Amino acid sequence: MRVIGMDIHRSFAQVAILEEGRIQEECRVDLVHHRFMDFARTLRASDEVVIEATGNSAAVERLLRTFVKRVAVANPRLVKAIAYARVKTDKVDAKILAQLHAAGFLPEVWVPDEVTLTRRRQIAERMGVLAQLVRTKGRIQALLHANLIPQYKGHLFGPAGRRWLQSLPLESEERGMLGRYVDELERVSGQLANLDKVLAQQALDDPRAKRLMTIPGVSSVVASTVLASIGDVRRFPTPEKLSSYFGLTPRIRQSGDHLARHGRITKQGNRDARRMLVEAAWSAKTAPGPLRAFFARTQRKRGAPTAAVATARKLVVMIWHILTSDRDYAYARPAFTAVKLRKVALKAGAPTAYGKAGPGRDYWIKEIRQREAAYVELAERAYERMVEAWSQQPRKSAPR
């Protein structure tokens, strides 16, 4: 069996072919589709190819998988830590990848399937469009601030706010600039609405996303972002592993006889998913239930930002249990969840039906809504009593 290490760059890949413990051949392959396919056809069905995770590694893996036995994708950070070399060239990197895989020391990463990869691309596109939307709004606000215009009392980017912007006493150049910003805002808002429509429909078609939306604070966008990042939850044996994957676990430093020191979170993994989880934690803070009690307790001790991150980690633990057990959130409110799903369906393009009761009708019945709120508030009180009883127990002394 041959092991082929490939050090991938933007326009080419350095190749090292390892066979019988020795590098038999080295070459450089252009990363142009037809030339790369010519190289792929020269490989054997028993070959194993090793590449590092990078921007174009998914395309390389997809093209090679039909020609070879296996394509292994390595974690570049761990490869660097394991095989540190003072002499670092493309040829050396390709050799190291092949040798690590042949020796069984290659730190691999999970290769997502096509559905998960498509979702990840959609989420990345949405985050880019959202960032552009925020920048455009910031430019409009900066233009108003530069012209000593007081803050608008209301929704600046709604219909009334748009009319107010058109009536401002601005110079012709700045009025033209404001008009271009508003046009850009409308264009980007339309793109965001189209992406949200696609994600909403995918969430409704995915039973896992519908289960996750039973958690307070988890919307269709949050559920889609988390599922795109996780892929197959079975690759995480414990909820702690999943929390570490999202970078929500603290850094730990310990050496010799000294006690372990816990620092800030690692911030490893998918940044977009971590940000969505923190936003979901801020939203869960407003809903009655154990999550609100946990947020309030942490906020009193550490402050609101730390409480949001800690609650996000709690959400990850809940998500792991929900996905592995195929059960809804234990303290879900059925009527509230039905309204949430109905809003997602409307965002996905479902027709409105005026004059007849829909699936979320129970939420608008005061008695049902109050009964569900009282149920989750009882769970919140039970959590507070448990924490109080736990905090009254004597602390264990640190080992010496």
Notes on the structure:
The protein has 400 residues and is α/β, with parallel strands linked by helices. It has three domains: 3-103, Nucleotidyltransferase, domain 5, CATH 3.30.420.40; 120-205; 208-350 and 357-391, no CATH class. It contains 15 helices and seven strands. It has helices at 33-40, 57-64, 76-82, 90-103, 114-146, 159-166, 172-205, 207-212, 220-230, 239-245, 271-284, 290-302, 304-325, 334-347, 366-391; strands at 3-8, 12-19, 22-30, 48-52, 70-74, 250-253, 261-265. It has a five-stranded mixed β-sheet. The chain has a two-stranded antiparallel sheet with strand order 6-7. Helix 2 (57-64) links the parallel strand 4 and strand 5. Helix 5 (114-146) crosses helix 9 (220-230), helix 7 (172-205) crosses helix 14 (334-347) and helix 12 packs antiparallel against helix 13. The longest helix has 34 residues, at 172-205. The chain is globular.
